[in-house]
Amino acid sequence: MDFSELIVILATAIATATPLVFASIGETIAERAGVINLSADGTILMAAMTGFAAALATNSVLVGFLAAALVGAAFALVIAFGAITLKQSQIAIGFVLALLGADLSSFLGNPVVLVPGPTVPAFNIPLLQDIPVLGRLLFQSDPLVYASYILIIVTWVFFYRTRPGLLLRSVGEQPAAAFARGANVVRLRYIYTLIGGALMGIAGAAFSLDFKAGWTNRSTAGYGWIALAIVIFGGWNPLRVAMGAYFFGILQSLASVAQSSIQSVPTQAFSVAPFVLMILVLVLTSGEWLDNLMSRLPLKVRRPILRAIRQPAPAALGKVFEQD
Amino acid sequence: MNAQLNHIYKSFGAVQANVDVSLTVQSGAIHGLLGENGAGKSTLVKMLSGFITRDAGEILLDDKPAEVRTPADGIRAGVGMLHQDPLDFPPMTVLDNFVAGKAGGLFLNRRDAVQEFKILADQFNFALDVDEQMGNLTIGERQQLEILRLLSLGVSTLILDEPTTGISASQKTALFDALRKLAGQGKSIVFVSHKLEDVEELCNQVTVMRAGHVVGTVDIPCPTSTLVSMMFGRELAAPVKPPTCQADIAMRIQGLTIGDDRIDVQVADLTVRRGEVIGLAGLEGSGQRLFLLTCAGVLRPATGKLYIRDANGLCEMTGKPYHQYQTSGVGYLPADRLREGLIWGLSIQEHVVLRTSSSGLFIDREASRQVADQAIQKFNIRGKADTRVGQLSGGNQQRTQLALLPSPLNLVLLEHPTRGLDIESTIWVWQQLIERCRNGTSIIFASSDLDEIVQYSDRVIVFSGGKVSTPIETTALTAGKLGEMIGGKFGNNGNSAYAGVN
Fold first, then answer.
1. Cα distance between the two ends of chain A
2. pLDDT for position B382
3. Is the terminal CB of chain A with fewer CB neighbours within 10 Å at N or C?
């Protein structure tokens, strides 16, 4: 495997990971506000189908994405209403929606199966594309991929550098305390759940209008669950979540290369590997042994390291906020 | 800022938490709000800060009517509240906690925030590391941060709900100094507490509440006995328990230390005789529950030893598993019947099955039905064998809990045994318990009902914020003495040199 081959593998990895980036960042935003959107898989399928059909009908990719985002937000609205207003189980509602979305997309999407339709055009960014290595890796792709870079950075900055971002994290952590600080917990949870859902919808359209170019029944099945796992793997931190998505993309594109080059390893190993690795990482970072190991280091060093490794879930994740 | 509450009413369902409550806090004054648990103090101040909404009445801030419906309204109007349990974000840093919810530009300006924080912290000699994670701080430090945060929001009326529980002596001194300084700057302070000592030391004026009503307002200094009689307001009931105490020792404790994240409790040596009833008096959360849980084998003490008599004589139980306590004849009835004592969705009969240890796979429905029916009849439970316990009334749940206790037992531990029960059930419950005492069972129970403590105990131990008194014979108790001890004034009646602190 020479160097240019490696670049190709990595560039493919980034491309395949892009829908996952949208989906998992969307999920991260909702979960940071305390709402688990378990419907990811169904949302992505429905949005992929709707987005494609809308783009086909109007011959506009943009309309397709808009429709997909609306579908995603609509699914999220069901979750938000059930979980926040009716105070029902987020898990149950999300799960049912995941199943519903999968079946409904196959049923409604039948007329557009395997119909050729519009796709996101390729676009190389001038100047940036000429940077050696990085240019080929990152900037010879299409606008959707570039949008995903921006999304990652903007989300991170929003979370950790802005006031509303801090309040968003507070709402998922200790809603009562956020309320005491003047936050409208219910409204914020609605807003961020809908934004997260819309991003998940865009992830669906990213499949059908870009990376898989077209609609077949259940073509994206499974990605929603992967996105949910990546959020945990990434510790609810947008940068790490994105890394998780890219990591998954690399393993996937390796799997396709491996079929020819590393024949001794069955390809299934690569598609399963992300999950095994995820469990491994969780086991390694949550054990007591880490504390024992770290206790030998001075506080100043220990603190940032532990904080970087340990990313507990938002404390109020999945819990109903009762105002007394 | 002058804060004035006029004729405030608030009820939660059938419970009237505040009835026609009026309170005026002058600018520059530290105003104490004193009362037992459930007197309605927290409810009142939560309405002032906008955390809950009132049913009726008006709030005046600087003589102008104020619409305080949410905490955000409260902050805008200049009222900030420090809650009893810190309302903050443990996984975030001190600085994030300081900034969260503050108004300002879109982007956080770390340097400005640190500077503002340092200036405020220095003013009160609070030493806090801005990069430390909140969860690693002590309760006292978290409190300090919260005060600084409220001040940075421009609060001019500061409410503190039980701020001296779980903080160290030096933190308390720092807190009091800070509060005096703030009052000196013209801010009004509302200091909610049940600790007489703290109120007497700090406040200019005290309003005493009892059962949702204001009893009265007095200036400090004021004789302790006056405050005690205002707080408890009655003579104690006469003891009704017949003597059941036997000579043999049922349980012995040697210098236990128990703690959780709020409070440390140290119990000196204690010997309980067979058939004896020990009452644990004190306001809730003063360590009685930790003590009971330790005696039941649920918690392990940090230090000390615990012996319980079983068939083989007095036997060391320290560190043994809960199961062993059960086989040694220890029974525990928690206060939260539906969460800890019983299982909501299971019937009385199913509880009987759960209790009986049997090796068989299948349930003998007939046999368990019979046992359940017998228990229902004997304990006069208003329900059927297949009634889910969640549907029983409180009194019948307590009867069910009692019915499920194995017999005989060496030691029964009860938390609020008659809370929420009508008088008839209360008398009935105690008849059953005293019957057990006659057969040699010892009882340790915690209650916030002083009458119950005095009526049924042989000896009383008072808990106050982790301080534990030596056992006092019930016959030697007076209302005043008990009230003072509950308020934290132990005199020479306890190991008061030890202040319960993390």
1. 63
2. 86
3. C
CB contact under 8 A, B91 and A162: no
The beta-carbon neighbor of A166 closest among B70, B96, B132 is B96
| B96/A contact by beta carbon, under 8 A | yes
A179 contacts on B by Cβ (under 8 Å): 70-71
Query: Which residue in A154, A167, A174 has the most chain B C-beta atoms within 10 A of its own C-beta, making it the best mutation to test that interface?
Result: A174
CA distance linking residue A14 with residue A214, whole number of Å: 20
Nearby residues of A199 by Cβ (< 8 Å), 6 or more positions away: A22, A23, A25, A26, A29, A69, A72, A151
Residue B352 CA, distance from chain mean position: 32
Which helix (H) or strand (E) segment holds residue B216: the answer is strand B213-219
> Bigger pLDDT: B191 or B265?
B191
How much of chain A exceeds pLDDT 70, in percent? 94
Cα–Cα distance measured from residue A61 to residue A44, given in angstroms and rounded to the nearest whole number: 17
Residue B405 token pair? 């206790």
Express each pLDDT in B283-337 by its tens digit.
Answer: 877 889 999 999 999 888 889 999 998 877 888 888 889 888 988 899 999 888 8
* CA distance, residue A165 to nearest chain B CA (Å): 9
Q: What would the pLDDT profile of B374-421 be if each residue is shown by its tens digit?
A: 989 888 888 888 888 888 888 888 889 988 888 889 999 999 988 877
Whether A169 sits inside 8 A of B92 (CB atoms) is yes
Domains identified in chain B and CATH numbers: 3-232 (3.40.50.300), 236-329+408-502 (3.40.50.300), 343-405 (no CATH)
In this structure, are strands A123-124 and A140-141 parallel, antiparallel, or unpaired? Answer: antiparallel
Across chain B, mean pLDDT equals 88
The string of DSSP codes covering A179-235 is: HHTT--HHHHHHHHHHHHHHHHHHHHHHIIIIIS-SB-TTTTTTHHHHHHHHHHHTT
Minimum distance, in Å, between the CA of residue B65 and any CA atom of chain A: 20
Query: Which domains are delineated in chain A?
Result: 3-265 (1.10.3470)
Tell me the chain A residues in contact with residue B158 when contact means C-beta distances shorter than 8 Å.
Answer: none
Would the CB atoms of A178 and B100 count as touching at under 8 Å?
Answer: yes
Residue B263 has pLDDT above 50, yes or no: yes
pLDDT in tens, B422-438: 777 888 889 999 999 99
Q: Choose the mutation target among B73, B75, B87 for the interface with A, i.e. most A CBs under 10 Å.
A: B87
What is residue A278's predicted lDDT score, i.e. its pLDDT? 67
Tell me which of A105-119, A244-258, B88-102 is least confident: A244-258
Q: What pLDDT does B234 receive?
A: 67
pLDDT in tens, B187-206: 999 999 888 888 999 999 99
pLDDT at A111: 92
Distance CA B287, CA B296 (A): 14
Residue B35 has which token pair?
């009362």
Kindly report the CA angle at A206 between A205 and A212, in degrees rounded to 5? 100
End-to-end CA distance of chain B: 35
Contacts of B92 in chain A (CB under 8 A): 169-170, 173
| Residues of B whose CB is below 8 A from A306 | none
| Residue A311 in this model has a pLDDT that exceeds 50 | yes
